[in-house]
Structure to design on (92 residues):
């Protein structure tokens, strides 16, 4: 029997992505969400379905999106049960 566990599910056991609140910086909203034609539901789905999430510090994470071109940088605040998206990037 082979069990497939997503890397993001293994690392992100600190919180439930479906229940926590998601906010984004003005920079991320105007530059990346507008360009990628996303709303907050799309952002939540992309973080949940990302193929890799790296923890960079105490609260900072990087989520690599499945098309391997986009990256989302966010912070998780445990006290408020909130994800705050700082920035993103895309490349080839």
């Amino acid at each position: 029997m082979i069990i497939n566990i997503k890397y993001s599910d293994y690392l992100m056991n600190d919180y439930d992505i479906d229940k926590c609140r998601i906010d984004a910086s003005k920079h991320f909203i105007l530059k990346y969400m507008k360009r990628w034609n996303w709303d907050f539901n799309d952002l939540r789905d992309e973080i949940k379905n990302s193929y890799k999430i790296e923890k960079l510090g105490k609260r900072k994470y990087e989520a690599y999106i499945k098309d391997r071109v986009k990256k989302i940088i966010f912070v998780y605040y445990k006290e408020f049960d909130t994800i705050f998206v700082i920035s993103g990037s895309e490349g080839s």
Residues 7-11 have pLDDT under 50 and may be disordered. The CA atoms of residues 15 and 78 lie 8 Å apart. DSSP finds three helices and five strands in the chain.
